[in-house]
Structure formats: C-alpha cells, structure tokens
Design brief:
26 helices; cell membrane; about 75% helix; PHBA_efflux_AaeB/fusaric-R; Membrane protein YccC; mainly alpha; transmembrane; membrane
C-alpha cells in the first residue's frame, strides 16, 4: 500500500484548519440563520395545527426573541413572558374602564406605553426588554380588542397563547440544535480580560504605553465591563454550573473595576512625579514595579486558566505580606539621603516624602486589589467556593430625565397617531397605533433611535414588497405545509442574515418582524389586496413618524442630553463625598459601576465625535481618581480610634470635611472660583494633618493611632495632585501657571 505523501498530509491539515476557521466565523452565522428559520416555521406549524386564530403572531415572536446564544434566548423569553402577562392584565383593566370612550382609551394606553418606555430606558439588558413588552403587549392585545370589547378576554388569551408558543419554539430550538452557551463565552472573556490586563499593567509599569493607548485601553475596559455584566445576567438562565458561579463572576467584575482604577491612579501619579522632575521618588519605587510582572507567571508561563491562577494568587499574597516592612525601609533610606543632601546645602522639595508615601499607599492598595481579583479568578476552578457568598452586583446609572423624555416621546407619538385614527376611522388605524408603540419602545434602547427607526422603516418597506409577492403570487399556487416552508424560508433567510450584520440590524429587524406580520399565513387565508396595502402603509407610516419624533423631540445626540449625562458622570464624585458608606451594594461598588455605566452611555452617544469622546474620557479619569480617593478618605476617617483627638468636632477634622465639601461642589458645578476653594481647602487639610502628626502624633505615639492619619494625609495629597494635573479637565480653571506648594513640612512616616 502506498503511503500518503507529506504534501497530501499538509493539504489535508490546511483544509481542516480552513474549515475550522469558517465554522468559528461565517459558519456560526449560517447556523444561527438555520436555527431562527427552523424555530419560526416550527412555531407556525404548531399554531396552525392547534388552529390558533393568528399563527403569524407565534412566528413573529420567534424573530423578536431569537438570539445566537441560548442563555440570551432564555433570558429574553423569561422577561417577554413577564412583560406579556403584565401588559395583559393592564390592558384588560383599560378595556373594562374605557371600552366605550375611544379617546380616553387611547390616552390611557399612550400613558401606559410611555411609562413602560421610560422604564425600558431606565433599566438594562433584558430587564429593559420586559418593560418594552409590557407596553407593546398592552397595545398589541388591547387596541384590536377595543374594537370588539365583548370578545376582549378570549382575544387576549389566544394572543398570549400564540406569543407563548413562539417563545417555547425559540427556546427549544436554541437549546437542542447545536446550542451555543453564554457560559462558554464568559469563560473565554474572563481568560482574555485577565491576560490583557496583566499585559497592560506590565507594559505600563515598564513605560511602554503612551497616553493615547491608555485612553483606548480604558475605553475598551469600560465596554468590556458592561458587556460582561450583560452576559453574566443571561448565563444564569442556562445551566446550574453558571448559576453556581454567578456570584463570583459578579465579584470578578467588581474587583476588576477596582484594580483597574487603582492602577490608573498609580500610573498617573508616577507620570506626574516624572513630569515634575521628582526622580528620587520615582527611582525609589521603580524596583517594586519591576517585581510585579513576574508574579503573574507560573513557571515562566502566563496564566491561561483559572487553575493556574491559584499559584499566582499565592505569590501575590506572599508579596503583599512583605511589602509594608520593605516600603518602610525604603522610605527611611530616602529620608536619610535627603537629610544628608540638606546637610551639604542641597535643597529638596518639602513634599518629596509625601509623594513617596502617596505612591506607596496606592501601590499597596493596587497589589491588594489584584490579589483579590486573582483569588476570585482562581476560585472559578471549583464548583463551589466561599467567595461565592460575597455579593457585589453591577449597579447601572441612568439619567431619570432622559428616561422620562423617552417615555413622553412615546406617549406623544401614540397620542397623535391615535387621534389621527379616531378622526379618519382608517381601517388599518389599529396597526398604525400599536406598531408606533412597538417602534418607540424597541428603538429607545438603541444609542441612535432615529437611525434605528429609519432602518426599521426601510426594512418594513422591503418586507411589504416581498410579502405582496408571496401573498398574491406564490401562496395561491402551493399546497400543504411543506411547500409553505419552502416558499417562506428563502424570504426569511435574507432578513435573518441582515440582523447578523450590525450596520444593517435595524433593516433586518423590521424586515423579519413585519414580513411575518404582513405575509405570515393564517389558517384561513384571505386575499385582500386593499387591506394588505392599507396595513403596509400603516406600518411604514408609524415608523416614519416614530423616526421623526426621535429626530425632533429632544434626540439623544443633542448637546442637552450629552451635558446631562456628563453632569451625572461628574456627580459620581458628589455621590462619593456625600452618600452613606454602607448599603446594599456598598458605596465603592455603586461608584465604580455607575461611573463606567455613564461612560458607556456617553461613548455610545459620541459616535464619530472624537473630541467629545476624549473629553468624556478625561472626565471619567478625573472622576474615578478623585472619587476613589474621597471614598478612601472617608473610610479611614470612619475607622479612626475612639479618642478625643480624633473626634468629629476637632479642627483638623473640620479641615478634612471642608475638603470633601468643596470637592463635591467643584464637581457638581465646575468653575474657577470653586476650583480655587477646593484647592485651598485641600491645602488647609494637608497642613492640619501634618500639624497633628508633628505636634501630637509624634514618633512616640502608638502606630495604631499614627498610621490612619498618615493614610489620610496620603489621600489628601493624591487629591491635590489630581486637582493640579495639567492633563485634567479641571486644568483650565487653574489661575496660576505653577501649582501651589503643600507647605514647608516634610511628609509623615507611614508604611503602606
């Protein structure tokens, strides 16, 4: 037998590799396309077999619910059922109250849809979708049923049955036919994010990252954090394994936010020290920075799996335990060197030691945050772990006024179209009003709702033409359900393919949903060209009006909304300075997640406006740095020993409180006068803490009394460096070219 040649073996390997690449890219698109069409036709066939009055509703539901990952389908289905039931109850109540008063019925329905749309804009992920469906289902069930109030209950029940059938068909096909689980995506995301963050830390500490790359990396981290939370919230619907690790995954997201914020603050402080020429402090700390990168390796290899992170977590824990004593020794050497230099007449800045103390404190806290983050990552290697019990949920932050605008806009559109329907008695007025409700609700979740509504209108126009060909040119010439599937599959496949392309997703959504609505066959097919054209015109008109409303009535791209969200972003510092330290999710967790959520919204609104994107990034950095320092300051103040010298009515505590008050006022409404007041209050607090350390808490005082004040002094000094940073968005409010000094006393001893 002749052995195969090496060339043939290589060709075979190339073919296998090419097929694997196709299967992981375009192959997934074709798989999703097949599953979506199979679920739609399955729902249609069962609805026809059960003789439901409107099988097209079941098929339409499939395209609303279907997602590439199984967890997303289950989550979306769960919230759709919840929203459907809520909308059903509300609409039956409205029909019972206002069936004989069409004006009041339309007004109350518009009000309910507006409330639900505002709730959808207020919430995140598929919880937002539940609000969308609560409003849309009310219109979908109630407006047609209002024409025949005597049969409203049965009409509502059958509509819920059709919707439920579409949901079950979607879930069944998604779970059985080559399922793709969100949990697998989460595991790969966790590995990739841990590795990329370690590489970023190593490169930054090595001085190999410029500011533009830092901004791009942190912007990517923001999107990654928000997307990770969305995936985590859907993965819990998939399997017990995902539910057992859900708390640790949420904790990882929180710890990643804390570690990345802490590292950025440290990196920015070191850059400021280099720019100010304080090389002695930089050189004293750089040996510690060079020790970090090897700690994230296992036997010289990077960490790839959660099991490998166990070794890294142990290395970080051991390193952190030795750090305080080593830092104290380094500081003593730096202090002795400065004393020797002063003895021979050299002059050193009085804040050099305070700079070292502040940087060392940040470095220690960063090592601690990374140790926690790595330990949680390592805990994912086992099914159950004690870290699962520590719950820290991502807390989104949304502008209430913006959410209210979405609701008012939807109510106005429904009210205007409802008035037009009543005035003209248009037979397709029901479709006009209820699909305006659907378009407003669905598009309001998009960063560019006017564009989304316009795309949906374009997709609906194309669906109207294709649906006309199917209804009047194809259906009369076929017989039986198999031939019906053959006729529908190519038309539906085109729309599903469009939904897989982000640039054309709006066209695909409008095409799929409303092709089913217009051309989806019922058990008793009615060939009514006039009614078909009326319905198609009503659908397109409702979307055009919705798009116009999004473009005219306070569109999201207006400077007004941008400025409101930017004020909310700065307001996170106000929250950090004034809110309670304790709570259900903790102040720091609410601050970290809220800041990034607002940044994510602002990035979506920025579009191609790079100047605005950079401005929001600068404000995010300033907010995170200053807000975290304020929380650190407040936590250390709360942990002070019970002693009269630490009482809240002491003079030095008054200076610190004044710093927090003025800092809060500055970020609430930035201005030159408030900037000067915040900087002056900060200088006064630094001087008061130094005076306390030199006069009262001298070297003979117990360390448990001296050490907290030393940390408080470091937090105050870091706030000062953030305020006078020339790259900060607050820099234009500075009245002087050179920043004021921090007094003439040297920094106090402390070991991180």
């Amino acid at each position: 037998m002749q052995a195969s040649s090496p060339t043939s073996a290589r060709d075979g390997q190339s073919v296998v590799k090419a097929f694997a690449d196709w299967a992981n890219t375009d192959g997934l698109v074709w798989l999703y396309l097949f599953k979506a069409i199979a679920a739609a036709l399955l729902a249609l066939g069962i609805a026809m077999k059960l003789d439901l009055p409107s099988p097209r509703t079941a098929m339409t539901t499939v395209f609303i619910v279907m997602q590439p990952q199984s967890g997303a389908v289950f989550a979306k289905s769960f919230y759709r059922i919840c929203g459907t039931l809520v909308g059903l109850v509300v609409m039956l109540a409205l029909i019972g109250l206002f069936a004989q008063q069409p004006e009041l019925f339309i007004a109350s329905t518009a009000l309910w849809v507006g409330i639900c749309t505002a709730g959808a804009a207020r919430n995140r992920n598929f919880r937002s979708y539940g609000f969308v469906l609560a409003g849309y289902t009310a219109a979908l069930i109630g407006i047609p049923a209002s024409q025949h109030p005597d049969g409203a209950f049965m009409s509502a029940m059958t509509r819920v049955a059709e919707i439920s059938l579409g949901i079950l068909a979607s879930g069944f096909v998604s779970a059985v036919v080559f399922p793709r689980y969100t949990g697998e995506l989460l595991r790969s995301t966790v590995r990739r994010r841990f590795s990329s963050f370690v590489d970023y830390v190593s490169a930054s500490l090595g001085g190999r990252v410029d500011r533009s790359q830092i901004e791009a990396t942190n912007a990517r981290f923001v999107a990654d954090i928000v997307g990770f939370e969305a995936s985590r919230s859907t993965a819990v619907f998939e399997s017990p394994d995902s539910r057992m690790r859900a708390g640790r995954l949420a904790r990882m997201n929180t710890e990643f936010m804390s570690a990345s914020t802490r590292f950025h603050a440290l990196h920015q402080l070191m850059n400021r020290l280099r720019d100010e020429g304080k090389l002695a402090t930089v050189e004293a700390l750089e040996p510690y920075f060079r020790e970090i990168a090897p700690l994230f390796d296992k036997a010289g290899e990077p960490v790839l799996k959660a099991a490998d992170a166990v070794h890294v977590a142990a290395q970080l824990e051991a390193y952190r335990a030795t750090l305080p004593k080593r830092v104290r020794d380094t500081r003593a050497q730096l202090e002795a060197a400065q004393a020797a230099a002063r003895a021979i007449g050299e002059v050193h800045a009085p804040s050099d030691l305070l700079d070292f103390d502040t940087a060392a404190e940040l470095f220690y806290r960063f090592v601690h945050e990374m140790n926690e983050y790595t330990a949680t990552y390592a805990s994912l290697a086992v099914d159950t772990h004690a870290r699962e019990k520590w719950i820290a949920r991502y807390v989104p932050k949304t502008n209430l006024v913006a959410a209210g605008v979405h609701g008012v806009r939807a109510a106005i559109v429904m009210g205007l179209l409802g008035a037009f329907w009543i005035a003209t008695a248009w037979p397709s007025g029901t479709n006009l009003v209820l699909n305006a409700a659907a378009t407003c609700a669905l598009a309001s979740a998009s960063p560019q709702p006017a564009r989304m509504a316009s795309q949906m209108a374009g997709g609906t126009m194309l669906a109207s033409l294709v649906g006309m060909i199917l209804t009047f040119g194809v259906f009369p010439h076929i017989d039986g359900f198999p031939m019906l599937c053959v006729a529908l599959a190519p038309a539906l496949a085109f729309g599903v393919f469009l939904t897989t392309r982000p640039a054309y997703a709006g066209y695909g959504m409008g095409y799929c949903i409303f092709l089913c609505f217009l051309a989806g066959p019922d058990n008793v097919v009615q060939y009514n060209p006039t009614g078909y054209i009326n319905d198609a015109l009503a659908l397109c008109l409702s979307m055009v009006v919705s798009a116009a409303a999004f473009a005219v009535l306070l569109p999201p791209s207006t400077p007004w909304l941008r400025n409101r969200l930017l004020a909310n972003l700065r307001g996170q510092v106000v929250h950090a300075c004034r809110a309670r330290l304790t709570g259900l999710s903790g102040l720091r967790n609410r601050f970290e997640s809220g800041t990034r959520d607002l940044m994510f919204q602002l990035s979506a609104l920025a579009g191609n406006d790079q100047a605005f994107r950079q401005e929001t990034l600068r404000w995010m950095f300033a907010t995170l740095e200053t807000g975290n320092a304020a929380i650190d300051l407040r936590e250390d103040l709360a942990a002070l020993p019970a002693h009269p010298r630490f009482a809240k009515d002491t003079a030095w505590r008054g200076h610190v409180d004044a710093t927090l008050k003025n800092l809060s006022a500055l970020f609430d409404q930035p201005g030159a006068q408030r900037y000067a007041a915040a900087l002056a209050a900060n200088e006064g607090a630094i001087a008061a803490c130094r005076d306390l350390l030199e006069r009262v808490l001298n070297d003979e005082a117990p360390r448990e009394e001296r050490h907290p004040v030393q940390r408080i002094l470091s937090h105050l000094h870091f706030i000062r460096t953030a305020l006078i940073d020339p790259q900060s968005p607050l820099a234009p409010f500075s009245q002087n070219d050179a920043a004021p000094t921090s007094g003439n006393a040297q920094g106090a001893h402390h070991a991180s």
